[in-house]
Every structure is written in structure tokens, then in C-alpha cells.
Amino acid sequence: MWGLAMRLKKAEKIVLFGILSFIMGAAAGSVVWMLLRIMDKGIELLWERIPEMLGILSQTAVGGDACGSLVYDIGVCLAGGVLIGLWQKKHSVSPEPLEVVIEKIKSEKGYPYNKVHILTVSALLPLIFGGAVGPEAGLAGVVAGLCTLIGDRLKYKGDAVRNAAGAGLAATLGVVFAAPLFGIAGNLEEKDWGRGRAYAPAEGREPILSKGGRAVIYGLAVAGAMLTVKGLSSLLGGMNGLPRFSGQRTLSFTGMILQWKWGLLLIAAGILTAMLFIVFNKLTRAVGTVLSRHGMISCLIAGLLLGIVGHFCGSGRFSGETQMTALISSWPGFAAGTILVFGVVKLLMVNVSVNLGWKGGTIFPMIYSAAAVGFAVAALIGAAAGTGAVEGNFAVAVVSASMLGFLMRKPVTVVAVLLLCFPVTFLPALIIAAFISAMFGKFLSHEKQPPSEDDCRRDSGGRDKIGRRQRNGYGMKMTKE
To answer: Whose CA is closest to 62, among 307, 343, 272, 298?
Structure first.
């Protein structure tokens, strides 16, 4: 009887936690929608309304949005560099990479929340002033912090707080990318299939939820967020998310198989694009390290480059979300080399932005770059083997999946984020490309062996010592055992 009573008590807790996750998801969706609306309005003011008033607004090009005045472009980006530099100098808080946010939630049972308001401004400034970064990193940190705060106020402990923050993060990713499965898979799948930090409760404690239970909880949070955003968007204006690459023509099963004679070439193109991203990241990180003690100068250099490069090639600024829509419809009218330049410029500028102080997400820019490279390769194949030899959107699907798979090493997550962007007939292509490139990346990386059981036990014990007071701040410290 006692065992039955304990199981019923645990079941009640799980049901209540599911309801709370749905509500948290709805709240997270509202926060994300509001911040993205602020971002859109800020971009509209700086890059459309004011240039229109000054008579220097130019037409939108396939490479991206560009103002008609080089002086204005440089001036706005330099102003952004000044604001970002001053803000970081005063507060020392900036958006962390998405994988770091996820890792902190897993290892530290939540995310710092005492400076969420500062983090919000830090996330919005680069986005509004034209940084080549996406919104997902900053928004993930803000929502994860707020959900941790709620968990602490409800006097949740340990694994419960971590699940609450994870639910908020899942909701955020699902809404930002308009890909519900990404919010779930991105939180559950370990890098390199289990080589990430072990997700374990403190020693001697049973986790509140199994992995399947967390998937359900995250799903409820994503559902709450998506429904809330849909309601707000229908009333006050919508959000874009990733564009949809619909098939240019209907392919039979045989036709789809014939596309795969170019499969290895497309996968190789995606992997080479990922390697170029890594090269740019190392180069710009080296520059950023040299300038690490001169944050203002670093931010100004990034602003100057964004202003100049973005003026001559619009893909040098912004996340690439809306630029992809123009690229999808206009790429057949451009030479393969021109489209390739769009993608390479985006790869370079996202690394310039992130490593020189304009912090933000990299997934949106990476997908834009992969799309540009995919269309460029399709154009090259068409020139060599005849027009229509490979469908452009099929090429983009394979290149995108292979690039992200190589960089993220989380093929299930890659398929989840790209699944709704392409026709369902492209699903096998996404799966094959993501898994092949992830395995190839794992083979090349020569990473260390997974943490030992002693390491995991020591980490778990340390994490168990972290209380609400320590979590209420950035730079959380581990208490001594």
C-alpha cells in the first residue's frame, strides 16, 4: 500500500508538472513573440523608416537588405558598436551560444536569472543594428533564466528546476524556428550520441522524469508556446521562422532516386561549407582574443565591417531569415558564383559578429549559407549536366543537413529543425545527409573519451550542492563537498 501511495504521489507530481510546463510554454511563447516584435520594429525603424525619410532607401536585393548610402550603413553599424561596447563594458553580460545554454541547464540545474533584463538588451542590440546573428541564443538564455526563476519561487529543487528550464528552452526553440520538434530533440539529444555531459540527478536520487517523460513535458511546453504565438500573431502580427522550401516540381519515386547520383557531391559541399565556417571561426576568434581587453575597439571594428560589407553585399548583415525567402525565388536568375558569394559572406560575417563582440545565435546564418551553397551547386550541376539535372531545393536540403550535421554532431536535432522546411519526400535525404556528415565529423574530431563514471558522480555531487542563492546569478560557483 505504501509503495502504491508513493507511485500515486509521484504521478500527481508529474501531471502537475505537465500542466505547469504547458503554462510555462505559453509564457515563454509570449516573451519570445514580444522580443521578436521589438526586434522587428527596431530593424524597421533603423533600416527602412529613417532611410525612407532621408530618401536613401534602396530596393531589397536577393543578397539581403541594403541601404542606398554607404555613409548611413557605416554610421548605423558604428553606432551599434558603440552601444554594444558600452553596454558590455558596464554589465559584462552577453548571449551565450545555444549549446552552452543547454549544457548549463543540464549541469547546473537551471540557468542564471538575476540579470535577465540585462541579457535581454544584450541580445536585442546586435539584432537591431544589423549583426549577422540569429535571435535563438539570446532568447534561449532569457527564457531559461525566467523559467529557472519560476521554479525557484515555486520551491522546486534540483531535477525539477532543470526540467522547468528545459521546458522553457524547448518552447523557445520551437517558436523561434517554427519547428516544434527542434525544441524537443535539441534538448534531449546528446552531442556525438552520448558524449555530452551526463544528464543525471544527484547521487542517490531518482530523477523525477525519464527521458521519455521529459520529451512529453517538453512537448507540452512547445504546444503551449506555439498556440500562444499563433493567437498573438493572428491578432497583432506574425513571426516568420524558417522559410519553406517547397519542391519546384513533383518528383516521382524514381525521379527522387535519380537525384541521388549527385548525393555524395552535395554532402561533400555541405561538409566543405562547415569546414569553411570552422576556419572563419578560428581566424576571427584569434582576432577577438587579441582584442579581448579592448572590447569597445572590437565592437567598433565589427560594426565597421558590417557597415561596409553589408552595403555591397546585403547577406553580410542580419540573420538571413527573410533573406532566404528572396533567395528561394530569385536564385535561378543569378550566376552560381554570385550565389556562392552570398553564402560565403554570411559565413564570414556571422563569425566576425560573434567573435568580435556582437554576440548572438549562429543557426539562422548557417542555414542561409547552406541554402546559398546548395543553390550554387545546383546551378553548377545544371550548367554541366543540363538545366534541371538536380532540383535546387533538393540540393539545399542535402547541403543544409550535411553542414549542420557536421558542425552540431546531433543528426536527429538537425532533421528536426529542417523537417518542416522541405517536402516530406525529402525526409530520407535529410536523414542520410545528417547522419553521414555527423559520423564523418565525429571521425575527424578525435575527441576524448566520454567522461568516466567518477567524473559524472563528482559533477552530480557538485551540482547537487548548488542552491537557489547560487543559481541567482551569473558565474555560479560550485560549493565544496
So the answer is: 343
Please tell me the total count of domains within the chain: 2
Helices within 386-478 (DSSP H only): 392-408, 411-418, 427-445, 453-464, 468-471
Same domain, 104 and 234: yes
> Residue 414 falls within a domain, yes or no?
yes
Confidence of residue 156 (pLDDT cuts 50, 70, 90): low
Rounded CA separation 125/128 (Å): 5
Instruction: Verify that 296 and 404 share a domain, yes or no.
Output: yes
320 with 390, same domain: the answer is yes
Q: Is residue 235 domain-shared with residue 278, that is, in the same domain?
A: no
Describe the crossing of helices 336-355 and 295-312 by its angle, rounded to 10 degrees: 160
| Per-residue pLDDT reduced to its tens digit, 50-69 | 988 888 876 544 444 555 78
Domain region containing 441: 253-445
Within 10 angstroms of residue 6's Cβ, the number of other Cβ atoms is 10
* Residue 114 to residue 473: CA distance in whole angstroms: 5
Grid cell for residue 275? 569546414
Q: Helices then strands (H, E): number in the chain? A: 20, 0
Q: Are 357 and 416 in the same domain?
A: yes
Q: How far apart are CA 450 and CA 199, in angstroms?
A: 13
pLDDT tens-digit map of 64-92: 455 578 899 999 999 999 999 999 999 98
